[in-house]
Write a structure and sequence with these properties.
single chain; alpha/beta; two-stranded antiparallel sheet; 8 helices; globular
């Protein structure tokens, strides 16, 4: 993935139109959204340098994670404190926080903590992406999450196809039913693991270990 391809992907994300109960965290015209675009660009450039061979496809941004940071399944805590074992994130690396009104006390996210802890333990660094790359929430309740609709997943498929055109993966891993369904519809061969939410941590970690453990 080249710098030009990264810029093209982020620009396409910023221009996407969502419904009133979905939030485009990369859209123009807002300083916090500009920070999120920069965070995502830095993440993708960092991942390009690591040359990951696996894609980990999650469901959608949550209000405690990607909605704030712009980074798939990455909370403020993970982004600002970093994942030392993998050499990822941290303020010293250039990742920046946002100041969205109403989200001041939101810092950690359970799924983000589980995912990055598991990857750190495995010393594995797949590229992480979302089936629907914007934040779906309950109407009028930005501090909430909901499952993306089929029309939203169709929009997400456009970005997934673009990602797969510019990046070659030896292994694609779907996290949960939503991600697996999208990959299946796109004809992308993949493995499936349990989503870590709602008591799925142990199965998720075991599934990742079976697929990503080295040596």
């Amino acid at each position: 993935m080249t710098a030009a391809q990264i810029d093209k992907l982020i620009n396409a994300l910023s221009q996407a139109q969502t419904g009133q109960d979905a939030f485009n965290q990369y859209a123009p015209g807002n300083p916090d959204k500009a920070i999120r675009r920069a965070n995502l660009g830095l993440y993708l450039r960092t991942m390009a340098a690591h040359k990951p061979t696996a894609l980990l496809l999650m469901e959608a941004p949550g209000y405690r994670g990607c909605r704030l940071t712009g980074l798939p399944v990455t909370s403020r805590r993970i982004m600002l404190e970093g994942v030392t074992a993998l050499g990822m994130f941290g303020q010293a690396a250039g990742f920046r926080d946002v100041s969205d009104p109403g989200f001041e006390r939101v810092y950690g996210e359970q799924s983000a903590t589980i995912v990055w802890s598991a990857l750190a333990g495995l010393r594995a660094l797949p590229l992480i992406w979302n089936a629907f790359p914007f934040h779906p929430h309950q109407p009028g309740k930005p501090l909430s999450n909901r499952k993306p609709r089929q029309a939203e997943l169709a929009l997400g498929a456009d970005f997934l196809r673009l990602l797969l055109l510019i990046w070659t993966f030896e292994q694609v891993i779907a996290v949960g039913n939503v991600a697996h369904g999208l990959l299946h519809k796109q004809g992308v061969a993949c493995h499936k693991v349990r989503h870590p939410a709602n008591g799925g941590k142990a199965e998720f970690v075991a599934g990742l270990r079976a697929l990503l453990a080295v040596g």
